[in-house]
Structure formats: C-alpha cells, structure tokens
Amino acid sequence: MSPPFARRSTDRAGGGAVPTRAEGAIDLHYSATPNGQKVAIMLEELGLSYRVTPYDIFEGDHLTEEFGRINPNYKLPAIVDREPDDGAGPITVFESGAILQYLADKYGAFLAPRGRERSAAIQWLTWQVAGLGPMGGQASHFLRYAPPGQEYGIERYRRELDRLLRVLNKRLEESAYVAGPDYTIADMAIWPGRAASFVVGIGLETYPAIHRWFEAVRVRPAVERVMTHPDLAAPGRYLGRTQKLSEREWSNMFGDRMHGAVD
Questions:
Q1: CB atoms within 10 A of CB 102
Q2: Which of 124, 139, 234, 244 has its CA 20 to 30 A from that of 193?
Q3: Rounded mean pLDDT, 176-198
C-alpha cells in the first residue's frame, strides 16, 4: 500500500509551520527515537495521511504546558486523532504501545480482532514496552550519558539486554514473525530498538533468527520510508554511542527541567 505522505511539519514544536502536503486526520507528535519510529512505521503501513510535529528533546520542546495537555507524562510520541470513530471530538493517545493498539483496532489491521493470535501479539507488545525497551534504554543511557565510573549500571543493563535478545531469538527460531506467521504491531514495536543494540555494541548477527527477521522487516516499503524520510529518520545525535550534553540539555533530558514539567 502506497501512502500519500500527507504531512505538515514544523521546524520544531511551537515553530512556524512548513507546509508539505495535504493534511490528514492524525497528528503525530514526534521525536525520531525508537518509540517514535514505531508509530511512524504503523502510520506508513496503514497508508494514512498524517501530520508530523517534530520535537527536539535535547532542547526540551516537549516540556511545555501545551504538550502536557496531550501527554501528561511529557514523553514522546503521542498522537491526536481528530476524527475518532465515536465522533465526539479529537482524542489524544500517548505511550507507543497504546498508540499502536489504538490504530490497529481503529483501522482493523496488524492485530487480530480476537483469539489467540491477538493475545500473542499483545503479549509480545507488552514484553517490548515493559522489558526490552526499558532495558535497552537504560543500557544506552549508562553508556551514552552517564558520568565515568558506571560499570555496574553498564554491566547490569547490558546483560539484561542480552538475555532479552536471546528470548527474542528463541521465539524467532520457531516463528516467522514475533507473534506468529503474520507481521503485526508486535514486530513494529520491537524492530526500531536495534538502535539500543548498536549503542551497546551488540551485533544482531550474534542472534541468527533475529538477524533474519530484522532484514525481512527492514526491506518493507513502509519501514524504508520511515528510515529514509527527512521528517522521520533519526539524526546522528540520536544514534551516537557517546554524547556530551550541556547543562541545559542535561536538565531537559534527565534533570530539573524534565522533572519540574509535571509540577
């Protein structure tokens, strides 16, 4: 399915609009992290028109009262559906896993409506958002941002990431896709996390079944569009193995300004 790439982007959240194409019903509040890319992949797979509002998380674009009304947790991504099925006005959805499930249910795609196939997809989606994603994120944090002398944290989360990847590899030894024979939102949720493996120096070729699956997903047209489109692909700063933040950037990402946004 070839989507219309209907988007309107901004230079940054709150910046001036930069018109690109016709508007769609979904507004995607976006940063090019693995969590954001999950949702972008789903929108592309569905072939929907949508608008992208990009946020620079290093600059703290997401730590505003306006965005807090969309996501009270002040994290990205989030969507606003301006044409929900109930017709009761726009609905906001935050948390990447919840967004994937919302879109799958609304459009009847990439998630079975009932039964064991649906249960398997929801289980692996939950496994990603509760386990693989947070553990990979913590491993990346200690390697990329933490001050020197964090060997315990690095080892703790790197080993747990390796354990979880072995769980995934075993699953993919017996199944073409994560939840079964069909490509689902569980695959979309897990696939972008290859960034964490890269950052911590774990090569996916170490896990043959994951590598086979990763390549099968990588060449899907929707995935290729996300990974190459300038509105959606991750800039180098999001992928580098080490990062040195200014005091302001640290405050926006991990410090006082980030914590103070919820006050």
A1: 18
A2: 244
A3: 89
CA distance 48 to 226: 13
Residue with tokens 């948390």: 95
pLDDT tens digits for 164-173?
999 999 999 9
Domains of the chain by start residue, with CATH: 8-110+245-260 (3.40.30.10), 115-221 (1.20.1050.10)
Residues in the chain: 263
Q: Pseudo-torsion of CA 122, 69, 40, 84, nearest 10°?
A: 70
Q: What does pTM read for this prediction?
A: 0.89
Distance CA 236, CA 32 (A): 10
**Cα torsion angle, 199, 205, 207, 210, sign:** positive
For residue 212, is it left (φ>0), alpha (ψ between -120 and 50) or beta? Answer: alpha
Q: Are the beta carbons of 146 and 139 closer than 8 angstroms?
A: no
